[in-house]
Give the backbone structure.
Amino acid sequence: MERNAPISPVTTTGEPTTPRPISLREWLALSGTRDLGRALLFASPAIIIFSIFTYLPFFHAIFLSLNVTNNQGEAARFNGLGYYARVLGLDGTGRTDYLQSILTSFQFALLVVPPVILVALSLALLATAQVRGIQVFRTIFTSSIAISLASAGVIWALIYSPSTKATTWLVELLNLGTPGLLSSDATALPAVAVMTIWSGIGFNFIITLSGLQAIPVDLYESAAIDGANRIQSFRFITLPMLSPTLLFLFVINTIGSLQAFTQFFLLLPDRTPTVYVYETFLAFWGDNRYGLASAMSIILFVILLILTSIQYGVLNRRVNYS
C-alpha cells in the first residue's frame, strides 16, 4: 500500500462506503456563497441605480462615439474611430481646436489646483490658533461652500463687469486696452481661475482643517521638548501627517478643474479661451453632433483615469498613512 494514500471510509461490515453528496445548503455554508448572496441583496439597490444612471449611459456613449447620429440621437452609420481621430487632430485636416481646448483645460487646472490648496492650508493653519473668536473666522472661511458655482459665477460676472468699475483699476494697471478683464485673452483665463479658487476655498478649508485636527497634539509637545520650532514642526509633523488629505484634495481638485464648465458658460460665453468640457457642450447642444460629443466625453474619461492613476502612483509613495 502506498504511503500517505487516502483511506476509504468503511462500514461495520468492513465494506467501503461512498461519500455522501453535500447538499446545496451545506455547500453555500462552506463556500461562503451565502454571505456573498446576502451582500449582493443589500447592495442591489445601489447596483441597480448605478447601472441605470452610470454604467448603461457610459456604454451607450461608447456606442454613439463610433457612429454618426441623426438629429434624434440615433446611430445613422458606422464611423469607427473617426471622431476620436478628429478630436486628437489625427484625421489629416490639420484642425487642432479640440486639442487646444484640452491644453486650455490643463492650463486652467494649473492656475486653480495649487493656489486653492495653498490658500486653504494657510487658512486652516490660522483657524487652529487658540484665540478668542476663532469660530467667527472659521465660519467666514467656510462661507463660500454655501454659494453654488452658478451663483458665484453671477457674482463675479458683476465684479468683472466694466459697468460696476470694481476692477477698472486693475485693467488700467495692466494696460490691457480692453474694457474688462474678461475681454482680454491674456487675463480671461486667470480671471475665471480666481473665481474658481474663491468658490472652492470653503470645501478645501473644511477638509484641510479636519486633517489638521486629526493630528495628535502629543507629537507637537514632544517636538517642542526636543527643541523644534514651528517651521520644523510644520515640515516634519504637519506635512507628513497631512499628506493623505493633501493627496485627496489634489486629485479631487484636478478632476474638478478639468471638468470645469459652469464658470466658463457664465463668464466667457461664446468666446475664447474655451475649455474642453465647454467644447463638448457646444458639440452636443449647439451642433447636435451626439457621436462627436460622446467621443469627447470618452476621451475626457480616459484622460482623467490616466492622470489620476499617475497622481496616485507618483504621489502615493510620499504619503504617510501611519
